[in-house]
Amino acid sequence: MLTLSLVLAALAALVHVVIFVLESLMWTSARARRVFGLSLDEARNTQQLAFNQGFYNLFLAIVAVVGIVCVLVGSVPVGAALLFAGAGSMAAAALVLFFSAPDKRGAALKQGVLPLLSVLALAIAL
């Protein structure tokens, strides 16, 4: 179960890095606007907000990856704490999105299922 948790956390981190790229680096691009359903004017008006939000996603991914590395080098308690914090925050943020924006439930599931399953597998493994 620990290995499953690490794989799921790594996939969740990858998803959040992609979100970072879309939000912080490509927000006004046609691709990002298509993914988030925005017009060019909406993207321009929210670019600063998205830039900042993208970094939140990147930092959560980094916490999860550092947790994975810690577990792999034998520091399981530290790694588990970081995984609970990183993946747990990803899952919690997805729950907030799921319940606060019914039209964005698909996005919430895409960003929240992997970290939630990672946290559950980690809890079972420990």
TrEMBL record:
Task: Kindly indicate whether the keyword Transmembrane helix belongs to this entry.
Answer: yes
The answer, when asked if Transmembrane is one of the entry's keywords, is: yes
InterPro entries xrefs:
DUF1304
**Ranges that cross the membrane:** 56-74, 81-101
Q: Which UniProt keywords apply?
A: Membrane, Transmembrane, Transmembrane helix
Official protein name in the record: DUF1304 domain-containing protein
